[in-house]
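Researcher: Batch entry, complex prediction.
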Amino acid sequence: MTLGIIGLGLIGGSMAIDLRKKNFADHFIGYDNSELNGMTAQRIGLVDEILPLDELIAKSDLIILSVPVSAAIRMLSDILDKINDNQYVVDVCSTKEKLNDSVHYHPRRKNYVASHPMAGTEFNGPWAAIPNLFAGRAGIICNAEDSDAKAVELVRNMYDSLNMRIIYMRAAHHDVHVAYVSHISHVISFALALTVLDKEKNEKNIFDLASGGFASTARLSKSNADMWVPIFMQNKENVLSVLDAYMDKLSQFKTAMEQNDEQALRNLIEDANRIKRILR
Amino acid sequence: MTLGIIGLGLIGGSMAIDLRKKNFADHFIGYDNSELNGMTAQRIGLVDEILPLDELIAKSDLIILSVPVSAAIRMLSDILDKINDNQYVVDVCSTKEKLNDSVHYHPRRKNYVASHPMAGTEFNGPWAAIPNLFAGRAGIICNAEDSDAKAVELVRNMYDSLNMRIIYMRAAHHDVHVAYVSHISHVISFALALTVLDKEKNEKNIFDLASGGFASTARLSKSNADMWVPIFMQNKENVLSVLDAYMDKLSQFKTAMEQNDEQALRNLIEDANRIKRILR
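Model: Structure tokens for the complex:
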């Protein structure tokens, strides 16, 4: 099988590493709108060759569309126009509803699988690709009934090769969930970095004291704008609603402190501690 | 030298492990107001013996006070009442100004060193103690001029034994800094956990999709209320002021999304990305 990967960044590149190891495909073609990314991906062995987009589309049995979700919306319909009945496309974007809706009536909709492998790091580009990024994580397939059974089976096998747990879900439902367990984490981390960087303008040595706690909460603030602006825009309603709920929790902390209400503060913290059931 | 450790939790216990390895003291005495913690600390070898508080105070050359900062404020003055000229006390609490002020006029103030080793994990109790917790981190000594030079030297040696970078700082200045690089991280992590746990009441499987990003930002929300309620209360003014600045940054994200202002969103994210200069 020939696998075409459009977008040779962290996700596309990391998939290439493990899918090659598992012999999921025997030929890996890549395309990236950045020539440097393409050359790098080939040089470090993520793909066997870099081809122009149309050639990649023509030659691939399965196409992985791993680009920012704004680019995916622009490209997906064109790609579906160009493939034949025996070619399939899967995207790996972090928001699903608008992208899915954009091809809902496309005559080749059945050749497309909407999916989201829930894994990543705060780094980007082909040099950020790493092995085993996906192991044990959730591989989500959305609105599977709109895809050909064979297409779903192919994507299922792909996620099996990456050792992912496969979860089926409605696209709209997916977008609510990721607003809670992923997108809001990025907003709060960006805001934390901005707050402390602002303070640094007056307090030069503020980061001298930064320890593991800060590193942990600020880690995601290194994430790339090209990827995250489109995610926030496409999942705006959900992210804004979670952000409101979140700011309400912050206000509860604020009020408890302002009123010297130690018991309220303790209740908030102990309620939050129930996260131990979820996180190791 | 005999080292007395009051409070055998994560910090006291982890200090014991490394200070023993480095032969900083040859006898380790412990006290904990929880009998179970005391027995555990002795059983796992953090200390050589558990003694009643007054006996520990009488027998120790150096006393490490590693208890929640509210308990430290209650105990420190009493401990200073009981020691002689050749005994020293160091605390390791996360807020410094109020504690320091509480003994400012104590006749044995010079035998006390106000300090804060900037390290920790989200776990607590003697079973959370680990080796090398402090290596490479900042060991802060506050208002050193109020302490005897010999006392400061002793604490300096202690932090050297833990491979810490020693930083001298005013207590008030310390409390502002930690509000930015530590305390606010805990508030935002507690609030995140509460937000998602609330949602779970209606969406049973919301955590199925939680990945590394969520784990990273929510990690600190496992932190212990006994430690954190007193920190937030004692550093209330600073934490509230940082919280306001932080909520203002969140509002900027909110406004950018509401107004579909992709450029503003991009600017915020790219400004936040400057954190790469600080965090690996």
